[in-house]
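Q: What would this chain look like folded?
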Amino acid sequence: MKQKVVPSEQTQQEAMKIAKATQKPGQTKEQTKLVAQGIEKGIALYKKQQKEKSRQADKAKKKQQRQKQTQAEDVATDHSTDIENQTETQSSKLPWILLVLSWLGFATYTFIGK
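A: My prediction, written as C-alpha cells:
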C-alpha cells in the first residue's frame, strides 16, 4: 500500500531540461520523456537520501547533547554529594566536642565547687 510520490513541478522541469540536454539525435519525444522520468526518480531518490542523512545527523546531534547534559548533571550531583559529605563530617564532630566540653564543665564545677 505504498503511495506513489508525485515529483514537484520544479523537479519535473529540471528532469526535462537534463533529458533534453542529453538527448541523442534521432531520439523520439517518448524516449526523451522516459529519460526524464528516470531522472525524476533519481532526483527523488537523491532527495530522500539527503533527508535520511539529515535525520541521522540530527539524531546524532541530539544524542551528543543528551550525553553532555547527562555528564553535566553527573558532575553537579558528584559535587553536591561531596559538599554533603563534608557537612556531615563537620556536623558529626560538633556533638562530640560539645559532650567533652560539658563533661569538662561538669567536672570543673564538681571539683571547684567543693
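The CA atoms of residues 65 and 71 lie 10 Å apart.
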